[in-house]
Amino acid sequence: MFISNDDYTDLTAFIYKKSGIKFEDKKRYFINKRVEKRLNEMGLETVRDYLRFLKFKDDGDEFQSLMNLLTVNETYFFREFGTLETFAEHCLTEITERKAAANDYNLRIWSAGCSTGEEPYTLAIIVREMLENLPRWNVEILASDIDENVLAKAIDAKYDDRSLKDVPDEYYKKYFNTTGGYHVPTAEIRNMVNFEHLNLMDRVMMRKKRGFDFIFCRNVLIYFDEISRKQVVDHYYISMNRGGYIFLGHSESVGRITTAFSMKRMGNNVVYYKG
């Protein structure tokens, strides 16, 4: 099967409208192979038939199956360590000291585009390491992704050696067990994280998100175009507490997306916060 120019344009426009993810022409082979897989499984003959099904007959399950194939999930524990160091030693300390002074012991963190769970579990480890008087705190870590397959893997929480290549030895001994050849975070770490299926372009669900002190959305918005990026980040701004911090990936800049967030230097990094 080879996808025609018109079919590729119409299909990627539909995907963009539903998910905010923009696929350029150079991704044609990537899209072609994955759509071919869906056609074979559904018994459809043409891309036009498939697109017609998505638009008029799908209850959302088929589009979800397609997105599960199209989203790329590259992650591991303690990825981009410099960012995490700034979060742990500067931002987290500032937020928790301010909250404790106000007798507010609620801490909410959102890992958006969490993939197979390495990031939210990493954040849980950092919180346990850094937070004084931990039993007094009500810590909620929300981890969301559009891909149901990776969410299932995150909940299963079984990881290979590659996922743990950057985990410090002392953290491994404290927070992981080896089971059946896999590395599994301890129950105390897993229980700190709640997983949720979420499309970042779902305005209704995004508007329900409120009260976060930290939002991590690292290496997710690189797949979005400028309009979609701004829409998502604007939702993040509304969902955050004043003084809260947002973290994007190394190749991304909050300042290039919106002027809503304020900027300052903490440690060796520039960080963005809701002023």
Task: Detail the topology: elements first, then pairings.
Layout: H1 5-19, H2 28-42, H3 47-56, H4 61-70, H5 81-101, E1 106-112, H6 118-130, E2 138-145, H7 148-156, H8 169-175, E3 176-179, E4 182-185, H9 187-190, E5 193-197, H10 203-207, E6 212-217, H11 226-239, E7 240-248, H12 254-257, E8 262-266, E9 269-273
Parallel strand pairs: 1-2, 1-6, 2-5, 6-7
Antiparallel strand pairs: 3-4, 7-9, 8-9
Which blocks of ≥5 consecutive residues have pLDDT under 50?
A: none
Helical proportion? 40-55%
Fourth CATH level, the homologous superfamily of the largest domain: Vaccinia Virus protein VP39
- Main sheet properties: 7 strands, mixed
Fraction in beta strands: 15-25%
What would the CATH topology of the largest domain be?
Rossmann fold
What distance separates the N and C termini? 52 Å
Total DSSP helices: 12
Just give the CATH class of the largest domain. Alpha Beta
Regarding quaternary structure, how should these chains be classified?
single chain
- Secondary-structure class: alpha/beta
Strand line-up across the major sheet: 5-2-1-6-7-9-8
Taken from the alpha-carbon principal axes, the silhouette is globular
